[in-house]
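Notes to self after the Tuesday call (sharing in case useful).
The group wants a holo model before anyone commits to mutagenesis around the pocket. I volunteered. Ligand is iron/sulfur cluster. Logging inputs and output together so the record is complete.
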Amino acid sequence: MKRTQTMNFVDEVSKIPGGEGVKVCMQCGTCTASCPSAKLWEYTPSEIIAMVRANLRDEVLSSSSMWACLSCYSCTVRCPRDVEPTNLFHILESLAVKYGYKPRNTNMPVMYNCFVNSIKKNGRVSEFGIMLGYYMSTNPFTALGMMPVAWKLLSHGRMPISAKRIKGRRDLIKIVGKLNEIRGV
Ligand code: SF4
Ligand code: SF4
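Result:
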């Protein structure tokens, strides 16, 4: 595995709010054992944390691992060192997007951008808009396989085609911008 030649990665991650715990991980493996999606990770949750601590910046940020996180928070609840792995993995996702890394074997960053764009535009998630953006940015033909499910959702009014905007959307955008400024990601 190629070692990073850039700045100290573990320091960079630990300075971002939510990433401070990375330095106290004791590699007990509880996060990996608790993770319902660990089998899908290129490197397991505890391996990714060990890689951050080893300053393997390129390997971590180009990995698909953290994109398999389901945000169930089991690891965060059970971690004996309060590392808050869930927050850590979302920080790694943000850094990967910020620096333009293309993770292997996953389109999740595309989904991430569609989700964020929907929030910025409407102040809330538009499921139809997200899925439309996702399939148009990846492979539109794969959407054909989802048509039966989409039709059921549409016909039961569970997935409106037109997005509803919240009141105070501009205020929400300001809050998100401020948070990004504080986190630096
Ligand atoms: S559960 Fe916490 S201390 Fe244990 S390996 Fe995972 S992050 Fe590290
Ligand atoms: S929050 Fe993510 S990394 Fe933690 S246990 Fe759940 S899926 Fe796994």
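Two things stood out.
The chain has two domains: 9-98, 108-183.
The pocket of iron/sulfur cluster (ligand 1) is lined by residues 25-31, 46, 49, 79-81, 83, 85 (CB under 6 Å).
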